[in-house]
């Protein structure tokens, strides 16, 4: 997965296409490659060897495929996966009013610069998604896994994390925003 596209490439600003089932063999392979990339990027030895930045998610548009597919691999403190799935056509079907943001801010493998500031996201979401075989899933997520999924779904809609940062006051925190991490 050497071909991650960067900010400025119009694919990152496009609305990606909904996938139809059954997926093609190529689409299935792409899903597995996205996940493999995340696994390798989180393996300290492999990451060093291939000079990868650690990633918890990677969306198909980031490899210039404008389709609604993303891999998510969120580990816990012991490096055990707490949410590890290849998501096809993910949709947020309900969301909390309460917002959450990472205290550290966010980064993106497609953005080669630090953009400081809080990125407010829904603290809890209910996510509907399909796996590679077309099976439907529903998951209730909160905090970090919810934030990562929202970052990835944004990629499917042509949105980048810094679009959510308050321009005038990047670290503005209203009463409804909880910081995590
Ligand atoms: C911080 C980082 C990510 C998500 C949420 C908070 C993912 C970074 C890797 N990606 O660019 C995936 O799109
Ligand atoms: Ni990203």
How would you sum up this structure, described in words?
The chain is α+β, with helices and mostly antiparallel strands. It has a single domain (10-180), classed as Peptide Deformylase (Alpha-Beta Complex). Helices cover 22% and strands 27% of the residues. It has 3 helices and 8 strands; from the N terminus they run H-H-E-E-E-E-E-E-E-H-E. The chain has helices at 25-42, 44-50, 143-156, and strands spanning 57-59, 69-75, 81-95, 99-102, 121-122, 124-130, 136-142, 177-180. The strands form 2 sheets. The chain has a 5-stranded antiparallel beta sheet. The protein has a 3-stranded mixed beta sheet with strand order 5-4-8, covered by helices on one side. A hairpin with a 5-residue loop joins strand 2 (69-75) and strand 3 (81-95). The relative contact order is 0.19. The model has no long low-confidence stretch (mean pLDDT 95). The protein binds [hydroxy(3-phenylpropyl)amino]methanol and nickel (II) ion (NI). Nickel (II) ion (NI) is lined by residues 108-110, 151, 155. One of its GO terms (molecular function) is metal ion binding. It comes from Liquorilactobacillus vini DSM 20605. It is an enzyme of class 3 (hydrolase). Its cofactor is Fe(2+). It catalyses: N-terminal N-formyl-L-methionyl-[peptide] + H2O = N-terminal L-methionyl-[peptide] + formate.
């Amino acid at each position: 997965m050497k071909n991650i596209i960067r900010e400025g490439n119009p694919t990152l600003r496009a609305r990606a296409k909904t996938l139809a089932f059954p997926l093609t063999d190529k689409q299935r392979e792409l899903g597995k490659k996205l996940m493999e990339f995340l696994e390798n990027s989180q393996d300290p030895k492999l990451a060093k060897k291939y000079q990868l930045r650690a990633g918890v998610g990677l969306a198909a548009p980031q490899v210039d495929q404008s389709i609604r597919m993303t891999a998510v691999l969120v580990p816990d403190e012991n490096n055990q996966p707490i949410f590890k799935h290849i998501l096809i056509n993910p949709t947020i079907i309900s969301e909390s009013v309460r917002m959450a943001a990472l205290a550290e801010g966010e980064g993106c493998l497609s953005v080669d610069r630090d953009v400081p500031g809080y990125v407010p996201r829904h603290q809890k979401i209910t996510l509907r998604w399909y796996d590679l075989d077309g099976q439907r899933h529903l998951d209730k997520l909160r905090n970090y896994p919810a934030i990562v999924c929202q970052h990835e779904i944004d990629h499917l809609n042509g949105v980048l994390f810094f679009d959510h940062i308050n321009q005038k006051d990047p670290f503005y925190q209203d009463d409804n925003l909880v910081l995590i991490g």
